[in-house]
Every structure is written in C-alpha cells, then in structure tokens.
Description:
Blueprint: H1 3-7, E1 11-14, H2 18-30, E2 36-38, H3 41-50, E3 55-59, H4 67-77, E4 82-87, H5 92-100, E5 105-108, H6 113-185, H7 196-225, E6 232-234, H8 236-253, E7 257-262, E8 269-271, H9 273-290, E9 296-304, E10 307-314, H10 321-324, H11 344-355, E11 358-364, E12 368-376
Parallel strand pairs: 1-2, 1-3, 3-4, 4-5, 7-9
Antiparallel strand pairs: 6-8, 9-10, 10-12, 11-12
Helix pairs in contact: 3-4, 6-7, 8-9, 9-11
The protein binds adenosine-5'-triphosphate (ATP) and magnesium ion.
Amino acid sequence: MEPELIRNIRLLLVDDEADFRGTLAKRLLKRGIAAHQAGQGEACLALLANHPMDVVVMDVKMPGMNGIDALHHIRERHTETEVILLTGHADTRDGVEGIKAGAFDYLTKPVEFDHLLSKIIQAYDKILGKKQKIEAVAYKARIEQQMIATERLAALGTLAAGVAHEINNPLAIIKEAAGYLSSLLQKRELTDMPRKAVFEKVLQKIETSVKRARIITHQLLGNVRKSESILAEVDVIQLVEETIQLVRREAEDKDIAVALQAADGLKPIWADPNQIRQILINLLSNAIQATPEEGRIAIQVESTDGGISIAVIDNGAGIPKENLEKIFEPFFSTKSPGEGTGLGLFVTREIVDKFGGTVEVVSRMGHGTQFTVQIPNRR
Length: 379
Ligand SMILES: Nc1ncnc2c1ncn2[C@@H]1O[C@H](COP(=O)(O)OP(=O)(O)OP(=O)(O)O)[C@@H](O)[C@H]1O
Ligand SMILES: [Mg+2]
C-alpha cells in the first residue's frame, strides 16, 4: 500500500498496559500512522462515539470491559470499523471467539510489529474495498434512476407527438381560412372596406401564430420518429426481474417486498421490450406509491390464449369507485404536483391499446389494487 494511503488510516490502540501502547504508538508513528490510544474498553467506546476509526487494535484481557465485549459493541454501532484483537499466548480461544463475533483477525502476544502492521493494512484495504463497492452500487442506482427518467420522457414524447399530430389538422384549417380571408381582402369590391387595415393586421397576426405553432408541432413529431418501436423476442420473466431491479430502491426505502410469481415454462413473446418495460415501471411505481411501509407487492405472470398476462397486485390504499373511471385519463392524479403527472396509466393504456391488448383494474378500498395487463403475441 502507498505510504500516503497508510497515513490516512485512523487507528485506535486499546490496551491497559500503557508502556506497551506507548511503544507500539511510537513505532507506528515512524511508519506514518498517528494512532489514538485508550486504556480500557469503556474509554475505547467513548472515543469511538465522537471519533470514527478505521481500525481498532485491542487487547482482549483488560480490567472492566474486556476486548470481546467491546468488540460486540463496536460491531453493533460502528459497522465500518475493523477490529484486530490481541490475545495472550495461551488464550487463542479468545481469538477464535473474537472472529466469530466479527473481528477482522487476532494476533497473539507478544506481537511481532511487522506482522501487526501488515494486518492493520489488510484491514484498511478491506474497508477501502467496501467503500468502493458502496460507491459502485450508488453509481449504478443513479444510472438506473436516470434510465427511468429517460423512459418516462420517451413515453411523454410519444404522448406529445400524438397531441401534436392531432393539432396539426385544425392548424391547417386555421391557416387555410386566414389565407382565404386575406385573399378576399385583396378583391376589388373590398378596396374601400372600412377598417380594412385593421383586418389585415389581425389576419397577419393569425398567420404568424399559426406558423409558430406548426414549428412546435413539427419539432414534437420529429422526435418520435427516431424512437419507432422495435419488435423482439421478449423473455417476460427476465424483463419483469430487470424492472423490479429498476424500482428496487423506491421499494426498499419503504421496506416493501416485491415478489414475482411466475408460471413454469413461459414462452417468450414478440413485442417491443421497451414498451413492456414502460408499462411495468408505471404499474410498479404506482403500486409502491400506494402501498404503506412494509407492504407487499406481487407480480403474477402467466401465459394466456395467444399471449401473456401480467398482474401487479398491491395491498395499498385502494382506488375510490368514483376515481376508477378517471385514472386512465391524461393528467388525472391524486398526487401532489411534484410527485405525479397523471400520465403513467394513460401512457400504459396507450401502449396496451397499440399492442391490441387490455388493461383491467380491480380495487378494494383499504385492501389493495390489482392491475392486469393482457398482451397478445405479435408473431
Ligand atoms: N396501485 C394503485 N393504488 C392506488 N391508487 C392508484 C394506483 N395506481 C394508480 N392509482 C391512482 O391513479 C392515479 C393516476 O395514476 P397515474 O399513474 O396515471 O398517475 P400518477 O401516478 O398520479 O402520476 P405519474 O404520471 O407520475 O405516474 C394516481 O394518482 C392514483 O390516484
Ligand atoms: Mg403513476
């Protein structure tokens, strides 16, 4: 290990023999490690409470709280700290007990300095490895969150394009009509029409605005063409498992268990995997949001006549009868503006319709909700 890294080790020596501690600390300092010291198990814990340590080197036999007891406390409260125990020559049993209790390792006294130093470095190495792993996991979670956001945007894009397409027709009619009126104003019999200039100005305004609106709709339409749907052979189980991973963080935050119940021997289906994933994300995040802490969500996948059925079942709050009609409408949401756009189920229904499938909902207030999506095989 690099000397600069060794210098970073936060080390605590715990031993009731002040001389032993002092000598060890001096030798460690020569190697770049400024060790803290404590003379008892209690003092060790008090120090740790305010000064997090990477490695604790601790004698097992001490008056008052012994090393093993202190180790138990450390394991409970300071999960990131590694402990190396020092046992008497005849007390290897203590060492083994220590390892069982979560010590990094034990050395028997009298310790050989270089041996101890290399153990300390090994323990620190383990901590660094753990930290890197945690960072890697956090990085992966960030990427996954971004993916969800991107997929949502893609779905929003599809919707926006649909709206744009619909608006294009009336826009064309407005443009036509305004053009027709302009041409009428040029007619000879209207040469002396009162307030003709005002009419011309207003028509001009209409034409400029129509032009602007068309630019916007064209932009929106241009974006979708790039993401035309792609049909592929989809292993639905695998896709469901991947999607569960995508929302795992959300579920874990509320201690919600997500269980996949799948029939054996399901055949892959022909569909657009991205769109199926989008459906699953929407249903799953709705279920997670509706479910209280420690709730349960089940996903049941089974094959049907000519296709597949996916049910997402939660034991959450349920949907009031009067809302059941509205939940598939765009922008219908009971969530606060920051939390829901009200597009999840609308987009879900859009996609399912495109597949020629169905989506059904059964809900009981206070008991939970089941959304069932049926998708026919496209082959
Ligand atoms: N599993 C469920 N349990 C209870 N209510 C639900 C469930 N799924 C949907 N809802 C209700 O239906 C409404 C519409 O759902 P939808 O997914 O379309 O939008 P949203 O979740 O509010 O917002 P977002 O666009 O972010 O998904 C929700 O606001 C909620 O009231
Ligand atoms: Mg939703």
